[in-house]
Write a structure and sequence with these properties.
274 residues; Helicase, Ruva Protein, domain 3; 14 helices; SLT_2; Murein transglycosylase; Lysozyme-like_dom_sf; MltB-like
Length: 274
C-alpha cells in the first residue's frame, strides 16, 4: 500500500499550530467518549482550525473525516500487549521476522553502514522495528489516517496529545506532503515504521537524497528517519540495548508496551548476531 507522504524540512508553522492547539482553553469543542458528539466536535474544530490558519486543502480533507469505531476499540484493548514475550513473539511470527530481517541486513549492508556511521544505531533495532511495525512494508494499515487521528483527538482519553497530532497531519496535507485520503494504522500512524504525524515533521530524514521524505516507499528515508528518532531520544553509540542496558531506555521511548519493547530487543539481538 502506498500513499502521498512527501515533505521537506520547513516545519516552523506546525509548531505554532501545535502550541496553539494545546494551549489552555484552545480546544475547539468538548471531547467525547462515544460517536454521539463527534459531528458537533468536528464542526467546532474546523472553525477553530480555520481561525488558526489551517489552509483550504487541509480543511477540505478534514470535512471528510468520520468517527472510527475500530480505532477506539483498539485503543482501549490492545490485547496482544497483555501476552508474555514468548507468546507475543509466537503470535507475531518472531522467527519469520528474524529470518527475513537477516536477509534485509545482508541485502542492504551499505545502507545500514551509512546509517550506523551517522547515528550510531546498528541494523538490529531498526530491522526489528521495521518488521514489527509493518512486516517490512507489507502491512502499513488500511484505515483513513485523518479520520483515525481526528477520532482520537475527539476522544477524551488523550485529546490534547492527539489534537497536536491532528494539527500536524493537517500541516502535512496543506503542504502536499500527505494525501487527504492516505491510509495507515488505526492510530493514524504513517509509513513502514509507523510514525505519528508530528514525528514525521520532527524526525523525518531524506535518506536517499531525492529532496523529499517518503516514509511509505523509500527504504533509505524509512530507516534513516527511524535511526534519527532513536538518536534524538538518546541512543548511545556502542552501548547495549537489552533490558538493563543504556539503549533499552531509548527503545522504551518508541513504544510504551513492555512486551513490545522486549520483542524489539530480542529480534534485534538475533539479527545483529547473524
Amino acid at each position: 500500500m502506498t500513499f502521498g507522504l512527501f515533505f521537506r524540512r520547513t516545519i516552523s508553522t506546525f509548531f505554532f499550530w501545535a502550541s496553539a492547539a494545546t494551549a489552555d482553553g484552545a480546544q475547539a469543542a468538548s471531547c467525547g467518549k462515544t460517536a454521539a458528539g463527534f459531528e458537533t466536535w468536528k464542526r467546532g474544530f474546523a472553525t477553530e482550525a480555520a481561525r488558526r490558519g489551517v489552509g483550504s486543502k487541509a480543511l477540505a480533507a478534514f470535512a471528510t473525516v468520520h468517527y472510527v469505531v475500530k480505532t477506539i476499540q483498539y485503543d482501549r484493548t490492545q490485547p496482544n500487549f497483555k501476552l508474555s514475550l514468548n507468546q507475543y513473539l509466537a503470535k507475531r511470527g518472531g522467527a519469520a521476522l528474524t529470518s527475513a530481517g537477516r536477509g534485509h541486513k545482508r541485502s542492504n549492508a551499505a545502507l545500514f553502514a551509512r546509517i550506523k556511521a551517522r547515528y550510531g544505531v546498528p541494523p538490529g533495532p531498526l530491522i526489528a522495528i521495521w518488521g514489527l511495525e509493518s512486516r517490512f512494508g507489507s502491512r502499513i494499515g488500511s484505515t483513513h489516517i485523518l479520520s483515525s487521528v481526528a477520532t482520537l483527538a475527539y476522544d477524551c482519553r488523550r485529546s490534547a496529545y492527539f489534537t497536536t497530532q491532528l494539527y500536524a497531519a493537517l500541516k502535512l496535507i496543506d503542504k502536499s506532503r500527505l494525501s487527504g485520503g492516505a491510509m495507515g494504522s488505526l492510530h493514524g500512524e504513517i509509513g513502514q515504521t509507523q510514525f505519528l504525524p508530528a514525528n514525521v515533521l520532527k524526525y523525518g530524514v531524506d535518506g536517499d537524497g531525492d529532496g523529499r521524505v517518503d516514509l511509505a516507499r523509500s527504504k533509505a528515508d524509512i530507516l534513516f528517519s527511524t535511526a534519527n528518532y532513536l538518536k534524538a531520544k538518546g541512543w548511545r553509540t556502542g552501548a547495549g540495548y537489552q533490558p538493563g542496558e543504556p539503549n533499552f531506555q531509548v527503545i522504551q521511548r518508541w513504544n510504551a508496551a513492555r512486551v513490545y519493547q522486549q520483542a524489539i530487543a530480542s529480534i534485534a539481538a538475533d539479527v545483529d548476531r547473524d
